[in-house]
Design brief:
The chain has about 600 residues and is an alpha+beta fold. The chain has helices spanning about 30-45, 50-65, 75-90, 90-105, 105-115, 190-200, 210-215, 225-240, 245-260, 265-280, 290-295, 300-325, 345-360, 365-375, 385-400, 405-415, 420-430, 435-450, 465-480, 485-500, 505-515, 520-530, 535-550, 555-565, 570-575, 595-605, and strands at about 120-130, 135-140, 145, 160-170, 175-180, 185, 340, 585-590. The longest helix has 22 residues, at about 300-325.
């Protein structure tokens, strides 16, 4: 028994009566635990400076991008911070602990802090469990350790693995450990993941992010609705059947399902769209089916497949846009037509960059290509020749925030490659002279046709075909502004011939051209073919335009009233009477919005 005048057992150096002997209710262990907890909490304030906080902010941004579809945000933050302070910038932690040791008088606290200077990454299999305490066998060293406390749930974990950063802690016994906030349980059946982690841990240098990216193969971190789970299961089955590496594809699809409300009637329709996205972005290579064959395989229509392909692609591009701090409109549309205009769609630059990256490397296996793409996906692309420099500058010009910046970037691109199709398309729009404009359009067609690959059933699926399709579209719409509908139709026919899925809204332009040429029967037939439903504003106004051209009579008031209900912005544009000019550069359309009204106004201007 400790005498009141004996040195206190806590190691403070004081007499027991002046320290813990003041009251009989003091729990020494609780007091030591509380003091150690305060030391941990104080690290954020004392151990980190402005430079470290800046680095952590950038790091969290990168880790969130890579793991947002794998872990919850709180866990990602813990993983990013812990691997930084304990390993990659480990002196931050050890220096802080050394300072704290100098401030302490209690021998037990000094002992624990000394142990805490040696954090390590543990992958241990749980062999026994008593309440909240578990005993683990380290898969690397074979040593046995004990972890207890709130870090272990009371449910049985025997047979599972525990993975994360730990530190020796003698409060838990001679082989005791304390874990950080990022401990992860791995179920018994996932031995494949464990084998991969062991291989990573045995490497001389550790890439901590890549370790946690291995968990991307585990998609059971989230509670999915039955149809969502069906989509994942069917996709997994398809990928395994045709021996594709599922890691990246499943991770991307998981992200899409977590961030989008799924209203599909058939899960196979979403799977078909997802596989097509894999082919489009070269995530799944080589393609073994055409778009039509893929639709037949999953027993869905090509139109339905294209709908989900577009939705998933747009989601991926929006995620990439967030990383670049760019804002893009998001929408849901019941039709295939989602984003049209003379500018490239937001997906194109990303797809082009990924294709250019893949051409710069030789890969012996699909796994190597996928791993390379995952690594490079978020990095800024660096062109390797003047042709690529010019193309990248053109993409930047299309995305510019101002006309002035668009013009400046075009001039820079022209210096690198004056024959590039997109250079001519940009110069055409920036000229005020009709002859100069047409000359640039024709040069764009000539240049892009040389690079056109006709081996694709749907030319738009191959990103290097996009400039040719863009040139055809831009020139045909320009011809229509010059009242040359007959000539424009030749180019519109060509677009549908090579790009039957018609993401550009070509058929709408053809309806206007037919009406202007007096080919009313063709106009009505095509309108019936593309009309999605009776409450579609675009086809409603086009129908009014055909009737006006055919009957030479004013539009009935009832039709105008119904049109205003479908899209209230059209009437304002019609009343303004302002000439719409060239076809809009980019329209992100949703039923009833202003961009839909702009398209309608361009189509019916001069008729209604």
């Amino acid at each position: 028994m400790v005498s009141r005048n004996d040195p206190c057992t806590c190691g403070s150096g004081k007499k027991y009566k002046k320290c813990c002997g003041k009251t009989n209710v003091v729990d020494m262990n609780v007091m030591i635990d509380e003091e150690l907890d305060l030391i941990i909490e104080g690290f954020a304030e004392e151990g980190l400076g402005p430079r470290e906080y800046g680095a952590l902010d950038s790091r969290l941004h990168k880790w969130t991008s890579a793991l947002r579809n794998v872990f919850e945000p709180e866990l990602i933050e813990a993983l990013a911070m812990d691997t930084y302070i304990y390993f990659e910038e480990g002196t931050l932690w050890t220096n802080y602990i050394k300072k704290q040791i100098k401030k302490q008088k209690r021998s037990k606290i000094i002992e624990v802090l000394t142990e805490w200077q040696h954090p390590f990454l543990l992958l241990g299999k749980i062999v026994t469990q008593t309440g909240h305490s578990v005993t683990l066998r380290d898969e690397i060293t074979g040593e046995t350790h004990t972890i207890n406390g709130d870090q272990v749930e009371e449910e049985s974990h025997i047979g599972k693995w525990l993975f994360g950063i730990v530190m020796p802690d003698s409060r838990r016994g001679p082989t005791g450990l304390i874990g950080t906030d990022g401990l992860i349980f791995i179920p018994e059946y996932d031995s494949n993941l464990v084998d991969q982690l062991i291989q990573k841990l045995k490497e001389s240098e550790h890439d901590y992010l890549s370790m946690y990216q291995l968990f991307a193969k585990k998609i059971n971190h989230f509670d999915f609705k039955p149809i969502q789970q069906e989509v994942l299961d069917l996709t997994q089955q398809f990928l395994m059947k045709y021996q594709y590496d599922p890691q990246l594809m499943m991770s991307l699809l998981t992200g899409f399902l977590l961030n989008n409300e799924l209203k599909a009637k058939k899960s196979s329709a979403v799977v078909a769209g997802a596989i097509q996205v894999g082919y489009d972005l070269d995530i799944l290579s080589p393609p073994i089916m055409t778009m039509k064959e893929l639709a037949n395989y999953f027993d869905v229509s090509s139109t339905t497949l294209a709908k989900y392909r577009n939705q998933i692609t747009e989601f991926l591009m929006e995620e990439i846009a967030k990383e670049k701090a760019e804002e893009r409109a998001t929408f849901k549309s019941p039709s295939i037509l989602v984003d049209i205009g003379t500018d490239p769609r937001g997906t194109e630059q990303f797809m082009w960059e990924m294709l250019m990256r893949s051409k710069q490397q030789d890969f012996d296996a699909v796994e190597e290509l996928n791993a390379y793409m995952i690594e490079k996906m978020k990095e800024e692309y660096k062109p390797i020749n003047n042709h690529e420099r010019a193309q990248l500058l053109c993409y930047q010009a299309y995305a510019a925030d101002s006309v002035q910046e668009r013009v400046q970037l075009t001039k820079k691109a022209e210096k690198f490659d004056s024959k590039l199709a997109d250079v001519h398309l940009l110069l055409a729009e920036q000229s005020d002279h009709v002859v100069v404009q047409e000359n640039h359009y024709l040069k764009a067609l000539q240049s892009s046709s040389k690079h056109y690959d006709d081996s694709y059933d749907d030319a738009g699926k191959y990103v290097l075909n996009r400039p040719y399709l863009r040139a055809l579209f831009a020139y045909s719409t320009w011809l229509m502004t010059q009242n040359q509908e007959k000539e424009a139709l030749d180019y519109l026919y060509r677009i549908l011939e090579v790009n039957p899925s018609d993401q550009q809204g070509v058929r709408y332009l053809m309806v206007r051209a037919y009406a202007k040429l007096g080919l009313f029967e063709k106009a009505y037939d095509l309108l019936d073919e593309i009309k999605p439903h009776d409450d579609d504003a675009i086809t409603h106004y086009l129908e009014m335009a055909i009737e006006t051209m055919e009957t030479k009579e004013k539009t009935m008031k009832a039709a105008l009233v119904h049109g205003e209900k479908l899209n209230p912005h059209v009437q304002k544009l019609l009343k303004s009477g302002k000439k719409p000019g060239v076809f809009p550069q980019s329209l992100i359309m949703q039923p009833g919005n202003q961009d839909e009204a702009k398209l309608i106004y361009w189509l019916v201007y001069g008729i209604l």
